[in-house]
Amino acid sequence: MTVSQTADSRPYRWPWHGAFTPARTALAVAVDGQSAPPDATLRARLIELVRAARGAGVVIGELPDHSGASVLPHGLADFAVTRPHLGGFSGTDLDGVLRRRGITDIMLAGFPFELGADCTMRQANDLGYECLALTDCSTGLAADTFGGSIASIQMSGGIFGVVAESAAVLELLAAYPLAAAAAPPHDR
Amino acid sequence: MTVQIHAEPYPWPFDGTLVPERTALLCIDWQTDFCGPGGYVDAMGYNLNLTRAGIEPTRRVLELVRRVPGMHVVHTREGHKPDLSDCPPNKLWRSKQIGAGIGDAGPCGRILVRGEVGWDIIPELYPVNGEPIIDKPSKGAFSTTDIDLVLRNRGITHLIFTGITTDVCVHTIMREANDLGYECLLLKDCTGATDYGNYEAAVKMVTMQGGVFGAIADSAAVIKALAPLALVRSA
User: Fold this and answer.
1) Residue of B nearest to A16 (CA)
2) How far apart are CA B8 and CA B213, in angstroms?
3) Which chain B residue's Cα is nearest to A147?
4) pTM, 2 dp
5) Looking at the annotation, which residues of B are catalytic?
6) CA-to-CA distance for A168 and A66, rounded, in angstroms?
7) Predicted confidence band at B1 (pLDDT cuts at 50, 70, 90)?
8) pLDDT, tens digit, for every residue of B109-158?
9) What angle (nearest 5°) sits at the alpha carbon of residue B10, between those of residues B194 and B220?
10) Inter-chain touch A151–B205, beta carbons under 8 Å
11) What is the residue extent of each domain of chain B?
12) What is the CATH number of domain B20-234?
């Protein structure tokens, strides 16, 4: 079953190609130590989204730093790539990990967003990945820098991709009830 | 003699003294497409005064750096091959959506296409002989060009950033360079963004956590620190 649908996001409906496909989509969570951990409410929101995404066939990835800090319960991620630096593609095999799974579209959450998630989104965008920043499943180092990161993404028609809230992504995922059974098994 | 630049959140560079032979002034995307009438940013309807604000301070720093023996200048330039084969489909689509399609004809030639008038570096900051120009099809530079090799070949480990736009190409390249271990300094009056709030946030972000991407300073601080080096040669 092929469903063409997009999420309500800014500055354009995501993904750009109009054919959201769970199996070619990753949801990646970048954590930089304990510099800006989520509170209980935010963490619960993220986990709800991750469970829904994974159920639909989206590949879940964790991008911890050297501290190994994680915000997802054990076993909820399909892959983990430890970042020696800030950007997920710097000194890692992340590009290969994504390509081997056929991933072209990436949703990103970050704790804080301005560091690992933002660096990774910029790198992914330059490599042609289609990216979405999850605004309400991320934290900021400070309100103004977090706001700046989110605002910059939307310049020039979406210069690094788009931003969206988890409700919009949940609504999109709800249109894929059969995807979990139809999706090919992941290389877990 | 110790050469140190008054910077935030720490005196730059972190390792004590600026060594001209290991330091490059990086001039990022000073192209008509990003700061000139009829270019890409103008076509999108942004205020060019914001991206042009850093031209004069950058020119002053550039002219001084060119008089410091051993110090390097490296330029970057964003643009695509005429057949757009190096332009990611979503980037091409986005630019057309906003009415400034990459490759489309404009007052300064085809937008963001190599060889066109709008794509080239503005006369005020045009490279001179011996200054490498890195042509990139991307916001960043390290994953899509040979810039790392060019810098290494010259023994460059320290980078002083000028250019446009602050929150997009400048920040992306600074983040990449920082990940690779380059010691970075952003000159806050030698850069600009298409939105002033985004410029301010991007500058502040560099200084978080003790300088997570490096440090920030202004052109006056750099000129003050480098002027004695330039005078040595002219004496």
Assistant:
1) B90
2) 11
3) B201
4) 0.95
5) 29, 136, 169
6) 32
7) confident
8) 999 999 999 999 999 999 999 999 999 999 999 999 999 999 999 999 99
9) 60
10) no
11) 20-234
12) 3.40.50.850
